[in-house]
Amino acid sequence: MRLLKVATCNLNQWAMDFDCNLKNIKESLTMAKEAGAVIRLGPELEITGYGCEDHFLELDTVNHAWECLKDLLLGDWTDGILCSFGMPVINGSERYNCQVLCLNRKIIMIRPKMWLANDGNYRELRWFTAWKTKDQLVDFQLPYEISEALQQKRVPFGYGYIQFLDTAVAAEICEELFAPCPPHAELALNGVEVFMNASGSHHQLRKLDVRLRAFIGATHTRGGVYMYSNHQGCDGGRLYYDGCACVVVNGDLVAQGSQFSLKDVEVVVAQIDLEAVASLRGSISSFQEQASCKTIVPSVMVPYRLCQSFNLKMGLSSPLKISYHCPEEEIAYGPGCWLWDYLRRSGASGFLLPLSGGADSSSVAAIVGCMCQLVVKEIANGDEQVKADAIRIGHYTQGQFPTDSREFAKRIFYTVFMGSENSSEATKSRAKVLADEIGSWHLDISIDGVVSALLSLFQTVTGKQPRYKVDGGSNIENLGLQNIQARIRMVLAFMFASLLPWVHSKPGFYLVLGSSNVDEGLRGYLTKYDCSAADINPIGSISKQDLRAFLRWAAIHLGYSSLADIEAAPPTAELEPIRSNYSQLDEVDMGMTYEELSVYGRLRKIFRCGPVSMFKNLCYRWGARLTPSEVAEKVKHFFKYYSINRHKMTVLTPSYHAESYSPEDNRFDLRQFLYNARWPYQFQKIDDLVQELDGERIHMRESGDHEKLGAASNGIGGMGVVAAGSGNPNVGL
């Protein structure tokens, strides 16, 4: 037997905070060595933090990374344990994203990343060069200070593996796993048995299984030990890295870390018999044949043994059932952990949320409540770091710390219902009940006096008094009156966030939380600089459909039972007067349902559909209920208001990234914000297709071909979405 104990980890690193990052790395090394591991794998770019972005272009960032690596190598941190550290390295004129492999206070080799992540949220080609030389390892001259300190001048640099006396180990860095021809396939044929994947992977709803299937697939048909390490937490941006460090052996998961956690360091250990890898490979004829004519990958020989022989004191890790969170849990825990990191690292003393009693702001409130529950739970489990942060943020006196989530919420969370003459008693009551359940410090204020003052000023200046549509006003007047209320709430929210701590003799400031969802951002159904404008937004890329499912889940599992009533209420902005024959509803105002918006969003972004492609696709999807002409009107309506409102995404509050069809303009969805909203060429193409389809239907009807006519009427895979009312499509401009 060749017994091997390995350790991989989740680390909560903070971009550009080298002290924090080095502390976490050292703690993970201590834990790995105490567990008896002989291999320790850390996340991608762990020394600097993954999200440094243009700081990677600064020589200081690279130099500081070398300084931290020198600190690690001059101590006993790497004694008796193979360590993989992630950091940027400059070789010649190029900057590379590298894994530095170290053992016994020496650098064994430096492995640069070959396939860079350069889509979605990632822009690695902006900062790094991809390593393209695959047939040889080159000599890399270490920086002078490092060379002098380590008494080591040169190290192998490039694509290759390390051949020990008893096994072969190689690095595969994040995106390389998902490349069409991943390195692990070639490395396995060269005899590599242990693959170390250092990653910087962010959370996205329902996507963990994609990652785990890749690890399983990498070793199921070719054998091997696949180690995966990831960042966990908010390292300074919109992403939450969702950990889930794990070890897979021959297609079986044998160790799995948490996906969501408040811990700064989590180490996952597995004990493996490498003879199981050799046995599987020897039993696969095609593997044997391909290995016999493989392309030779360069290697570095290290005269050192990693494995132990047969030893009953060292048990083997058994296959585990993969642990998945349901989407509702992901919405609770992911943004909740992200908010905690943002709160503790920003220097703020808490959060303030304009709580309307509607689904979106109530979802945000519930997520903050979940965060408070997680903090209290981790403190009860003995996490001293969480405890110290909570004592500091909550301003507890000597010897006190949070033991109840509601009491903790009272210290760090303000909710404010900003009612107007258009607000209903139902939403006011729902906001109050939910605030009581969570434990927030709740205020109930009226904004009518402020709105009246502004309207009086306007009337004095112009001599005109705008009226609501239900009172005979025009669309322009109606929209202007709604926007005044919405924007006043934003101003008041920031005023209360900065001054309420002073009122209550608390130091610091409170962060204002936004509560617009991804569908409203996509459609532009929000007022620019209303309560969607905030410091951060935990639900900014979560769909309305998912939020409503989350509310139903949270009513039971978080203990906030009032959320069930909030979810059941029809969505409304409550910006227009309520009359016996009129009540404002979001879906009527938008001219489309939230279900339709989700479909449009996925087709536009995930499937990269323009107006014509979307029309064709929806003719199949919705053909059972809608004619081609009706589908065309829906597609045109969406693209008209999407393009009119695209400019709002340029000032969108920084939001937690959770959805692959997010319209967020900063990095994820890069498109112009000035459109010809009439889309003349594309819409004419759609009109031509409608005319052609109508002609086919008439021809089939006249020819008596009822079977084809029925197929044309029913469509393929119809989703049965009911057409929405037109209402007032201008609301929220």
Describe the sheet with the most strands.
14 strands, mixed
Classify the beta-strand content into a percent band.
Answer: 15-25%
Number of helices: 24
Shape call: globular
> Stretches where pLDDT falls below 50 for ≥5 residues?
714-733
Mean pLDDT: 92
Coarse structural class: alpha/beta
Rg of Cα set:
29 Å
Q: Fraction of residues in helices?
A: 40-55%
| Total DSSP E strands | 20
Cα end-to-end separation:
69 Å
Question: In words, what does this structure look like?
Answer:
- Residues 4-274 form the CN hydrolase domain.
- Strands 1, 2, 3, 4, 5, 8, 9, 10, 11, 12, 13, 14, 15 and 16 form a 14-stranded mixed sheet that branches.
- The protein has 24 helices and 20 strands.
- Helices cover 41% and strands 15% of the residues.
- The protein is an alpha/beta fold.
Based on the model shown, name its key terms.
733 residues, disordered C terminus, 4-stranded parallel sheet, 14-stranded mixed sheet, alpha/beta
Sequence-ordered SSE layout with sheet pairings:
Layout: E1 3-11, H1 18-34, E2 39-41, H2 59-74, E3 82-91, E4 94-103, E5 106-112, H3 124-127, E6 138-141, H4 144-150, E7 154-157, E8 161-163, E9 168-171, H5 183-189, E10 194-198, H6 208-220, E11 225-233, E12 241-242, E13 246-249, E14 252-256, E15 265-273, H7 275-282, H8 285-292, E16 299-301, H9 327-346, E17 350-354, H10 359-380, H11 384-394, H12 405-412, E18 413-419, H13 425-438, E19 441-446, H14 448-462, H15 475-503, E20 510-512, H16 518-523, H17 544-557, H18 563-568, H19 586-590, H20 594-606, H21 611-621, H22 628-644, H23 680-703, H24 706-714
